[in-house]
Design a protein that fits this description.
Elements: H1 2-17, H2 21-66, H3 69-74, E1 78-79, E2 86-87, H4 90-121, H5 124-136, H6 142-189, H7 197-224, H8 234-259, H9 262-270, H10 275-286, H11 288-304, H12 307-312, H13 333-340, H14 351-386
Antiparallel strand pairs: 1-2
Helix pairs in contact: 2-14, 4-8, 4-11, 5-8, 6-7, 6-8, 8-11, 9-10, 11-14, 13-14
Amino acid sequence: MQTNNQMPGMKAHTASLLLSNRAQRQQRLMTVLGKSFLLAVTSLSMLAVLFIFIFIARDAWPFFRHESLREFFTSVRWYPSANEPEFGALAILYGSAMVTLGAGAVAVPLGIAAAVCISDVMPFSLRQTLKPVMEMLAAIPSVAYGFFALVVLAPLLQQKGGQLLAAAAWIIGLPVAALTTIVMSDVLSERICEKYRTAARWTVAIVAGGGTLTGLAIIANALNALRIVSGTNALNVSIILGIMAIPTIVSVSEDALQAVGRELREGSYALGATRAETILKVVLPAAGSGIMAAVMLGVMRAVGETMVVWMASGNAAQIPRPWYNFMEPVRTLTATIAGDMGEADHVTGSGRYHVLFAMAFCLLVFSFGINLMSERLISRARKRNAA
């Protein structure tokens, strides 16, 4: 009886869920319209990138067609406003590469070390506070960094640059020297018999420690005697660009380290590994692709920056002598484009106008290639972590 009593209600309920043909057509139409709208919105960014490529390539093409590519990529003579203009961009390309490498040397070790510290060393409550603060550094306008580089760091480098570099050498060199001494004493004493191993370890530690400290003192004294002529130079820009790239590297690297998961860490601890061994031999290799992607994104932040390099690089189109001298002014692609675009003849489409687009095209191709590579590495890391 109960079943018979339920049947009419169930039929009525099922009948109420059925849609008429008109309602089904309206539902399908709304679904198609909704998907089309979302696809159009998603495609806007791709179309924007495509149009940027077309726009820059269109104005760069006249320069590549009429001027010498050999002069552009191999000459250091940059005289775009002369009666017989010369467009040798080698020194400018070199300046961009130099400050990018310098920024990477500052940002990569500090960023990865900070990410490891936040991910695996600090307590959870402190991590939840420190990471947002670190990411807030990315929100500071680049003109503020440039103002700091021009008003504070440049005079400091010019007046006390040697002393600052000597202090930095001691700060960076002492942990490296201590680590080198410990590793050398452990490795070299392993081949000694057990009876004399402790004495051999101490002997190697004293000799290696003395040697590394002596070398560090020689380097610090040489840096202390250094005189910096101009504070607006490649070193100034490299330090500031490195600081600007640190939040990107820390944020993406910390996410990659967290994605490794607790299972690998707990398995390593269960096998008797210490926290340092777990971080160095398990966590960092597992998160390698993600960390590499973070480094590339940080490098891209340094490559594309304009305001800081324009304000603090010195804007000298030259290759420093010697070529590794970071104390001399340089000029970069972004600063050249920003500085010369207002002076180029837009109406007649002069060579000075089109060479700036040629520089922008080179910069765009390089940035696009690095972005594609970083995306590929991130995708590979996600697949490996999901497996």
